[in-house]
């Protein structure tokens, strides 16, 4: 199994967290900037870096990759068992990627970064109650939603975002995420350096 991954992308990081949580043997090939291997252009028709190759199967959408890994390697499970909870898990991940990861892209580009920072901070503050009643994001069990939240929370200092005291519970949740051995194992060198200072 081979994963082509951007070493700085939060969404690519989420996929690497799943791989680490499942303790899957994988060859991670970090792709930096425009230095893309020739075979990647043939594998991914959208020109993006994130691509998983498992024998004859090629996947290149983060959520599909994450669910495939959870189904192919069922232990530990990262999706709920019942259909309603699974659908809710998918919906929450969709909103995280659409509403929050898109803000990370804006922050990275500059331009409207100040507005994106404020919006991201406000969204995370509004989400804080989702981690008050349970140890994980709206769940007693660690799931793919937590795999998506961890890369965002890891990058807050780098983005220059400080959560208000009303979101202190979100910071405690982030600390629980960061203490997981799989999270530490998933970090690229570039991601480690985001908090090295």
Sheet-strand content, in percent, reads 5-15%
Rounded to the nearest angstrom, the distance between the terminal CA atoms is 34 Å
Query: Regarding CATH, which class of the largest domain?
Result: Mainly Alpha
Q: What is the count of structural domains?
A: 2
The major β-sheet equals:
4 strands, mixed
Shape: globular
Whole-angstrom Rg: 16 Å
Outline the low-pLDDT stretches.
none
- Strands of the largest sheet, in order across it? 2-1-3-4
Beta-strand segment tally: 4
Can you tell me the CATH topology of the largest domain? Answer: Glutathione S-transferase Yfyf (Class Pi), Chain A, domain 2
Q: Helix fraction?
A: 55-70%
From the coordinates shown, what is the CATH architecture of the largest domain?
A: Up-down Bundle
Number of helices: 10
**Mean pLDDT metric:** 92
Helix-strand sequence: EHEHEEHHHHHHHH
What structural class do the secondary elements suggest?
A: alpha+beta
Structure description:
The protein has 197 residues and is α+β, with helices and mostly antiparallel strands. Strands 2-1-3-4 form a four-stranded mixed sheet. The chain has ten helices and four strands. The protein folds into two domains: 2-76 and 187-193, Glutaredoxin, CATH 3.40.30; 83-180, Up-down Bundle (Glutathione S-transferase Yfyf (Class Pi), Chain A, domain 2), CATH 1.20.1050.10. Strand 3 (51-54) and strand 4 (57-59) form a beta hairpin. 32% of the residues are buried. The radius of gyration is 16 Å and the shape is globular. The model has no long low-confidence stretch (mean pLDDT 92). It is 55% helix and 9% strand.
